[in-house]
Amino acid sequence: MGRRLNGDGTIFKRKDGRWSAQAYVTLVNGAQKRICITAKTREIVRQKLSKILDQERQRVAYVEKDWTVSEYIDYWLQNVQSKRVRMTTILTYRQISEKYIKPTLGRHRLKDLHMRHVRGALDTLREQGCGGATLQKFYQVLSTCMNCAMREELVFRNVVTLVEKPRYTAKETSIWTAEQAAHFLQNVTDHPLYIAFLLLLTYGMRRGEVLGLRWCDIDFDSDAIHIRQQVGRINGQIIARDVKTTNSRRTLPLMENVRKALLEHAKKKGISIPPFNPHFEISTQGMVVASNTGTPIEPGNLIRCFDLLTKKAGLPRIKVHAMRHTAATVLKDLNVPVKDAQLILGHANISTTLNIYQHGTFESHRTAISAIEERLLAGNKITA
Fold first, then answer.
1. What is the DSSP string of 5-48?
2. Domain boundaries, the chain
3. Rounded to an integer, what distance in angstroms lies between the CA atom of residue 142 and that of residue 200?
4. Is 310 left (phi over 0), alpha (psi -120 to 50) or beta?
5. What is the rounded CA–CA span in Å between residue 64 and residue 297?
6. In DSSP terms, which residues pair with 68 in a beta bridge?
7. In sequence order, what E strands does the chain have?
8. What is residue 314's three-state secondary structure?
9. Is 329 exposed, middle or buried (0-12, 13-18, 19+ CB in 10 A)?
10. Which of 50, 128, 199, 239 has a 20 to 30 A CA-CA distance from 253?
11. CB 63 within 8 A of CB 153
12. What is the topology classification, in CATH, of domain 69-162?
């Protein structure tokens, strides 16, 4: 019998009659650890030890904790994603996890999760009436989580990617024409929230950015508006936080009409405008759009007010966020270069500006096709 090499493990019988094996393994963090395996028979211990040593020879890290999907997704959200994505994204991921992933897959062992389990969960959710958007979010969150587990060498592959991604086509966002947007502003000139709607439609700012704008973010001497924070509701509280992306932190020109509107707004509110503060610090003090007590406006109240004013103005109902889409489309119709539109809107990627926010319009289609027609039929007049 050949000599047993270091690392091959040791098998021995315990005083209580059971069998044990010991071996050194490499953990996920790279550290070495001596582990002990116990079973009723020598053969069972030998098989378990053989499997562990095979993984060690293949340089597959030894996993100390036998995670369930439910346990790992909680760990992933708290210890991994919380350092990478915004709190609002974490809340969305957690909602998807609690409502859809855990009830269907949470009890399964992470290492034993199979594509048939994922496919079965999607089928179950479909039967329960979940739409394509929900199924896609389920797929996205679970797949991202499994990618992390694979990087940590807890699983060999991401089984979610072996399942066909649920199909979902988002509905086309309804927007206003430039004429409809102008009509709306004319009808709300005297409203306390007029300045908010003016900023939304003129600059295509996000709702949270408008609600988070402070007087100290506006440089009246240099005619510039600095977008540096946003306001939103997180865990039941209205808080100020950083903007969505690095590109979202931007400087916009203070246009003359907006300048006049801001000064008039401050006068009506009896506000003494503070000087521009170049030192950025997130806060909810000195908001441009604020309640009568100076606190930030509830985002839901802005939506409800907008819906009522839209109906009163006799305009098609659109979402508040669609004003951002409207501004982007007007930029396109005015032939503003896409790169400039991206920087004005604060998109992280120019593809977002192109694919999501710049809607085609019937009139722009007519102009484009008219140009084609003129080129094709030049000198070939068709007579009846």
1. PTTS-EEEE-TTS-EEEEEEEEBTTS-EEEEEEEESSHHHHHHH
2. 10-57, 69-162, 178-362
3. 35
4. alpha
5. 49
6. 109
7. 10-13, 19-26, 32-39, 218-219, 224-227, 230-234, 237-241, 250-253
8. coil
9. buried
10. 239
11. yes
12. DNA polymerase; domain 1 (1.10.150)
**CB-CB neighbours of 206 under 10 Å:** 22
Give start and end residues of each alpha helix (H) in 58-114.
69-75, 87-96, 102-105
Which residues are CB-neighbours of 206 under 8 A, at least 6 positions away?
A: 230, 244, 248, 321, 324, 346
- pTM as predicted: 0.73
Residue 379 has pLDDT above 80, yes or no: no
Q: Tell me how far apart the alpha carbons of residues 241 and 173 are, in angstroms, rounded to a whole number.
A: 27
Tokens of 308: 């009522």
Hey, what CATH class is 178-362 in?
Answer: mainly alpha
Residue bearing tokens 């005297």 = 190
What is the C-alpha separation between 34 and 17, in angstroms, rounded?
22
Residues 322 and 161: their CA atoms lie apart, in Å, by: 33
Tokens matching residue 348:
């992280």
**pLDDT tens profile 351-377:** 888 776 666 666 666 676 677 667 677
- The beta-strand segments (E) located in 161-300 are 218-219, 224-227, 230-234, 237-241, 250-253
pLDDT digits (tens, 9 = 90+) for 182-226: 999 999 999 999 999 999 999 999 999 999 999 999 999 999 999
